[in-house]
Amino acid sequence: MSGAAARYTPRVADPPNGADVVADAFVHHGIERIHVFPGGTIAPIFEAAIARNVEIFTARHEQGAGYAALAAARLRGRPEVAMVTSGPGATNLVTPVADAYFDSTPLVAITGQVATSDMRGAMPIRQRGFQEVDTVSMMRPITKEQILPRRAEDVAQAVERAFRISAAGKPGPVLLDLPMNVQREVLSAPTSCEPQHGSAEQEISGAEPDAAELDAIAARIRSASRPVIVAGQGVLLARAQQELRRLAIMRQIPVSQSLLGLGAFPTAHPLALGYHGHTGNQYAGLAIHEADLVLVFGSRLDVRQTGSLPDRFAPGATIVRIELDEGELACSRVRSDLTVHGDVRRALTGLISRLEGCPQPDLCAWHTRIDGWRKRFRLTWDAGGALKPQPIVCAASRLTARQEVVCVTGVGSHQHWVARHFELDFPTRPLLTSGGHGAMGYDLPTAVGAQLARPTSTVLCFVGDGSLQINIQELAAVAEHQLPVKLVVLDNHRLGIVSQFQLQNWDDDPTCGQKWNPDFLAIGAAYGIPGWRIAHEDEIEDALAAAIAVDGPALVHCLIDPHEDVSPMLLAGQTLDGMWPYRS
Ligand SMILES: Cc1ncc(C[n+]2csc(CCOP(=O)(O)OP(=O)(O)O)c2C)c(N)n1
Ligand SMILES: [Mg+2]
Fold first, then answer.
1. Measuring from atom 4 of ligand 1, which residue has the nearest CA?
2. Which of 162, 241, 264, 365 is deepest in the core (most CB within 10 A)?
């Protein structure tokens, strides 16, 4: 993909240098493609990687490289590599690295660094080398570990550790900061960087759940008359979708999900409640509020899920937590009545074996109540008039119903319309969205990485007019590789969700309303990407179907109603049973 291999024969150093050791580790860890933006202090590794037939995907910005790597890592469930140069390259990589940290995405972030002799260290000066920045300190709060080998002979262990720590336990990014001289230094004796599978796999699968705690939870499930499951991303990270499905169906327990957990349980399943919280479904919120048992699997119950009054979350329920991260249990915002620290899949397997063969629960009354809420609080929109975003998302979901799809969003109102209306089911219809960091600009480069990682899937990228412009430069990567990404631009000429927040609080939306936008079709055309523009509901199907049918990238520019808000919404001071605007 670099094209470089055709122009020169890359050198395989003999004896090897530090860069060769890094490239060997790529091969050992099955890394077929690295996601990069180039620069001098990382150049030795390009050559070493090409020599080993590791493909190089070159983004147009370090955020592009970082997010493309994150997409591949989320889809494959294993660490991927983003690699950038020192100084500005490293500072530009901060956003996707933070995203990976907060959303538990395994990533090996490799940054070039100036030579050890040029590093500032403890000197009372701002900078010593050219493009020097203290990347280790900068990345410390947003990575699981930061590793800076100072000699070539330390590189093998360093890179091996980076892959291992990134995937172990609760996954996340690890920084590998590589000084230029260390990359070029020739090794006097060969060193080994064979993967140490045993220990890594042990850590990945997490702690063994406590049997007595599982007994207590199984007993509580047997006696529950109004149970609800809350499935978080921990279910996906533990690859426990099948166990979740089994338990929910066996006990007929309705399932709500967190935003990042969406797809852990098929959202079209009759037991699915979609998701709850800030922009979730009122009926999911009501089910949790009225439940007598809330089973939280792999979710940290952040403020967006519970609202600003955690004491009033699920007030009448026993709250059960199954959680790999001990810190989340120790520092929970919400009371937990029964907890299990351990791997979610193993815990669910333990619960299933304890409940199998037990008499079927009679939850008819509970299901009837929930069905009533479903009907009363079904998400609707005004038909006719200006084009609404919801029917666009529904149509895209319908048109791709029989395809493998990766659904990507930016951050804003459109993200929530997609989460509410697009049918999701991991791994055939996953959602890739920026949860904890909530970063605009996540969209296009993530779609690029998803399409590279899953060339046969339809990649639908729903993106707001604001979010698209944050990393719009990645259209060049789409065009260069003719990646068949389908961009659905939900253009309300508004930084919608912030504008809504401003209007609700201050009756005005300075800097967010009525934004001037470029002609997105013309932008697409400049990159050779065909496009359609729609402004009416009856144009939706044809435009989307045509874009999906195109053999290559396509863009659908949707001029949507600028006044459409995300509604209902859980606002500060509200509880899950009374989202705005239903309270009145
Ligand atoms: C990098 C970054 N900067 C600022 C924000 C704050 N923010 C959140 S959503 C949003 C508006 C998004 O606008 P758009 O992409 O058009 O989506 P819409 O809400 O209109 O659907 C802003 C400014 C953010 N989340 N990320
Ligand atoms: Mg917008």
1. 440
2. 264
Contact yes or no for 462/490 (Cβ under 8 A):
yes
Q: State residue 475's pLDDT score.
A: 98
Question: What phi and psi, each to the nearest 5 degrees, are found at residue 152?
Answer: -60, -35
What is the tens place of the pLDDT at every residue in 255-278? 999 999 999 999 999 999 999 999
Query: What's the rounded mean pLDDT across residues 463-470?
Result: 98
For residue 412, report the distance from its CA to the centre of ligand 1, in Å.
5
| Integer Cα distance of 37 and 410 in angstroms | 22
- Residue entry with tokens 């390259």: 89
- What is the CB neighbour count within 10 angstroms for residue 526? 12
**pLDDT, mean of residues 341-348:** 97
**pLDDT digits over 66-94, tens only?**
999 999 999 999 999 999 999 999 999 99
Taking the centre of ligand 2 as the mean of its atom positions, its distance from the CA of residue 212, in whole angstroms, is 51
Cα separation, 292 vs 123, whole angstroms: 61
Residue with tokens 């907890």: 339
Ligand 1 centroid to 239 CA: how many Å? 31
Q: With a cut of 70, say whether residue 4 has pLDDT above it.
A: no
- Relative to the alpha carbon of 412, which ligand is closest? 1
DSSP-assigned letter for residue 359: P
Which atom of ligand 1 lies at the shortest distance from residue 470's CA? 1
DSSP H helices, 485-539, are 496-506, 520-526
For ligand 1, residues with CB inside 6 Å are: 410-414, 438-441, 464-467, 470, 490, 492, 494-498
CA 199 to centroid of ligand 2, rounded, Å? 46
Q: Whole-angstrom Cα distance, residue 239 to residue 260?
A: 14
Which ligand places an atom closest to the C-alpha of 414?
A: 1
Among all bound ligands, the one having the nearest atom to the CA of 467 is: 1
Using CA atoms, how far residue 1 sits from 50, 54, 57, 120, 418, in Å, is: 10, 9, 6, 36, 32
